[in-house]
Write a sequence for this structure.
């Protein structure tokens, strides 16, 4: 494995690193601005908003399912990613990214305007899902941009720097909104409006962005589209999973592991409200702001770890952070130990710090430059399938346990704990097999 010194001695690598550093400032500014917008559509924040501000507009069960929709939207919105990855092949990435940022900001405007009524709840749900779908498409394109602009030996660290800044801004944005929800509803709406304006600014900044070897990448993508036809979307999806055995196994393990992770947030929000009776700000801090803050703090450690190894052994270590976080949440609910909720939120953030790097970059250990979007599209589409189903499953498990025996809903987090543990064990087995000499 090459060290950073060896990479520095390589003239081509040195030139690529110099170009990467020149591209960083505009990337940082645009992603910082759009991160303020993202704070307004974080699943935890909107879940708390739905649970606390729309109760009484419809039945409690439908309110809880609405919580599942908005808290799961960041994940199930990824269903659009594979279609978008195919559609975007051969098209100008800078222009598309700018347009996606602009459209996301428009969705935040709708959330700011949604009244506290049943029609307002439906508008909020639709706008939040649309915003997250647009962001999922943005992430899919961003994978190609970051792969092109940043060399492999520094990619995780540069991504980590951007992720750290982004997470801090999302955490701050969501925390301020959460604090205003309790006593300053009008001011909260105005702040949602300001976050939308930040998204418009991000779109304007990114319009002047650059991508290294952009025309060459577009040419390769168009050749692929011309050779197999842009309409054969699912054939390419299935071909990736059929032909790339290593990537298929990685996706299988991710599916089991991610199924457990995506079942947690929706029932947790319900438990924070119904079992612990926490204020809105406390709920937002535990489910959103503290995890994002600890994500930012932990990213540099995870970036150094990922830069030095393949995604499989990396996941074999990083995945246990999620297991521990869900274990804290489950123990807090079962034993009515409120302090463990804060420990769980912190541990969840540390796990997210590693997870966001693996999620954004892991597919690159299997793909080539011109197939990066395709692999990322497969990855996030499978995430979307989990996100579409599992938050609602988590809520229904909670509701069934409560119907069976009032108070038993507190045990609902044991199911995602078992699934995430099984996925983490699978990664460990894969890492051991990969390390064996062939």
């Amino acid at each position: 494995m090459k060290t950073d010194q060896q990479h520095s001695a390589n003239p081509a690598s040195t030139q690529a690193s110099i170009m990467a550093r020149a591209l960083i400032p505009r990337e940082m500014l645009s992603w910082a601005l759009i991160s303020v917008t993202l704070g307004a559509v974080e699943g935890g924040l909107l879940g708390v908003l739905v649970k606390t501000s729309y109760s009484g507009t419809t039945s409690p069960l439908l309110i809880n399912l609405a919580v599942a929709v908005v808290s799961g939207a960041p994940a199930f919105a990824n269903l659009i990613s594979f279609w978008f990855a195919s559609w975007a092949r051969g098209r100008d990435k800078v222009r598309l990214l700018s347009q996606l940022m602009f459209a996301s900001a428009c969705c935040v405007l709708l959330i700011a305007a949604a009244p506290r009524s049943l029609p307002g709840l439906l508008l909020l749900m639709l706008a939040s899902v649309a915003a997250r779908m647009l962001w999922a498409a943005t992430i899919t394109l961003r994978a190609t941009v970051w792969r092109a602009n940043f060399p492999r030996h520094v990619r995780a660290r540069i991504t980590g720097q951007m992720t750290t800044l982004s997470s801090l801004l999302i955490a701050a944005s969501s925390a301020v909104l959460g604090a205003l929800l309790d006593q300053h509803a009008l001011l909260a709406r105005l702040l949602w409006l300001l976050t939308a304006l930040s998204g418009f600014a991000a779109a304007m900044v990114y319009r002047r962005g650059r991508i290294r070897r952009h025309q060459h990448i577009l040419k390769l993508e168009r050749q692929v589209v011309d050779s197999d036809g842009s309409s054969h979307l699912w054939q390419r999806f299935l071909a990736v999973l059929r032909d790339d055995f290593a990537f298929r196994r990685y996706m299988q393990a991710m599916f089991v592991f991610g199924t457990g992770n995506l079942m947690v947030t929706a029932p947790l929000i319900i438990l924070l409200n119904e079992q612990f009776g926490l204020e809105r700000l406390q709920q937002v801090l535990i489910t959103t702001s503290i995890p994002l803050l600890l994500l930012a703090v932990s990213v540099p450690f995870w970036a150094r770890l990922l830069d030095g190894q393949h995604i499989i052994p990396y996941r074999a270590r990083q995945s246990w952070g999620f297991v521990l976080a869900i274990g804290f949440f489950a123990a807090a609910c079962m034993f009515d130990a409120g302090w463990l909720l804060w420990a769980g939120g912190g541990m969840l953030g540390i796990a997210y710090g590693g997870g966001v790097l693996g999620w954004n970059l892991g597919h690159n250990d299997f793909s080539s430059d011109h197939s990066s979007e395709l692999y990322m599209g497969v990855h996030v589409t499978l995430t979307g399938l989990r996100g579409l189903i599992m938050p609602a499953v988590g809520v229904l498990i909670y509701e069934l346990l409560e119907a069976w025996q009032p108070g038993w809903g507190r045990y609902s987090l044991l199911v995602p704990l078992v699934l995430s543990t099984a996925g983490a064990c699978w990664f460990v087995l894969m890492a051991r097999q990969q390390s064996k000499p062939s």
In short: Confidence is low (pLDDT under 50) at residues 1-9. The domain at 8-435 is CATH 1.20.1250.20 (Growth Hormone; Chain: A;).
